[in-house]
Amino acid sequence: MSSPLLPSARTAIDVAVTELEYGKAIATFQEAAAAGLACFRVPGGEAELAAAVRASGARHVVVGVEIYHGPLYEALSAGGVIARFGVGHDNIDKAFATSRGLLCTNTPGALHDSVTEHTINLLLAAARHTVTVAAALSAGSWQPRLGVELKGKTLVVAGCGPIGQRVAGIAARGFGMHVIGVKQSTANIEHLQRDWGFATVTTDFRQAVGSADFLSLHVPGGPETHHFMDRARLELLPPRCWVVNTARGSVVDEAALYDALATGRLAGAALDVFAREPYEPAEPERDLRRLPNVILTPHVGSSTREAAERMAQRALQNLRWAQCGQWEEMDLLNREVLDSLKRGPKSKP
What we know:
Blueprint: E1 13-18, H1 19-24, H2 26-31, E2 37-42, H3 46-56, E3 60-63, H4 71-75, E4 81-84, H5 94-99, E5 103-105, H6 112-128, H7 130-138, E6 154-158, H8 162-175, E7 178-182, H9 189-196, E8 200-202, H10 205-209, E9 214-217, H11 231-234, E10 242-245, H12 254-262, E11 268-271, E12 294-296, H13 305-324, H14 338-343
Parallel strand pairs: 1-2, 1-3, 3-4, 4-5, 6-7, 6-9, 7-8, 9-10, 10-11, 11-12
Helix pairs in contact: 6-8
């Protein structure tokens, strides 16, 4: 890990940007100085990031997917922003941030198209054994395999938000798949069918997956969806079904998934997100990397130049709004912090 690059100019507001995220949109972060935000690169680990914030006096931070428990919140001053470079925010303790008077933001909408495309990419790779046959050929072995067409197959989309909708639209109208949506309520079902090609939408998971060839997960991370795909739900899937996850690693019980795949209870899994990243097996004896019917990618669903640019621009816009006190314009994850900010610092008796 390279050492932090501290800002040379002290006239602008200092912003610490974690190294991986900085590297995805270098020009954008460098150009932010013209708008009064002096962005500089720091390590992503919490202890190192907190130390860099204290040493530089940084007002705000832009962070990725690493989990932040405590030191970061204590290093930042009230009114500072923890800007998530991305959409999922289960790695940020919003309650602790609020107690410290810190604003938390994300970048909604910035990665919808990129994650959608990668989901479709994984569906195609699963249907045609792309990873397996390509690896064999690269190793000098000619091993053609019989795949399946997506046309006419049943895709269940669990989570019918913006990404789930886009996946359904491409699958139904591009490939001719029969798409069933699963969501928590019956609201907007006609809209989903009319505008996004869902054949039907239901709140009944068991009913939805009975005839599934593929299940694509698009539910948000968090306590409510932790191990959404547990052993019981996995057992509801037909043996021919592939599970595709580009949502959050926490929504799948990886040990239960391993058992289903290793015993042939499920056809396969294509995963871009994991409970622990970089990937570590939930249990040493249940390592998904050892299974031939698994496709693993290193959380690259949003890793496109276009999405990175949108995320950087949106994160920086949130910081500019914070500097101007335009908090209502921000993509706030903890709006309850606004009351204390609007009251301002308490006067001394």
